[in-house]
Aminopyrimidine aminohydrolase
Amino acid sequence: MSFSEELRQANAGHWEAATKHRFVEEIFAGTVPDDVMRRYLTQDYQFIDRFVALLGMAIATADRFDSRVRFAQFAAMITSDENTYFLRAFDALSVAEAERHHPVLSAPTAAFLALMQEAAATNDYANCLAVLTVAEGLYLDWADRPDTTLPPAFIHAEWITLHNNDGFRSFVTWLRGELDRIGAVSEASRRESAAYFFGRAVALERDFFDHIYA
Ligand SMILES: Cc1ncc(C[n+]2csc(CCO)c2C)c(N)n1
């Protein structure tokens, strides 16, 4: 079994609780209450800074140029002005300026930011890859439901299509392969460390979905 698949299966309980979460069912049905959507998006918007920093560490610690380029292209894509989803969603949900930029961080958000920082601070590509593979791969897994029709409101529909389009799918496929490749050339202790970061990230993804309903 590949390393990425081994890690996913080792965390199957939290992984499936997240990918089949009430939020996921409701977003496909277009029935996520506005309050829940507001909490979700304001907290999620706080991820981008640490996430890009983690991508930067992946660029710096990768063992080859092709991998750096792949991450650099992804970083350019997510930091460009093209994706205005959050801003349009905040407008549609009447989220005030302060709440867009300086919300009180919830415990799962703070824990996720800390985990990204901790993975980056190890200076180890395998740990960076593990957290990135969860943050991207788990999102592809919940969003990828080929035979489903999209809900009518853009705040729901676009959050799905951001995470199941062909570009995103091919990036996740590459990420998983990259984690497999690094796993295969790493010693057991390095694989264990990556597995630890992977497991914490999966548990936090589940907590994040849970807490927006609490
Ligand atoms: C809690 C949480 N986990 C993962 C993602 C997915 N994700 C995080 S950064 C990024 C790249 C830019 O879209 C993607 C897809 C999310 N949004 N929220």
Summary: The CA atoms of residues 8 and 15 lie 7 Å apart. Residues 188-211 form the longest helix (24 residues). The pocket of VIB is lined by residues 44, 47, 51, 78, 135-136, 139, 163, 205, 208 (CB under 6 Å).
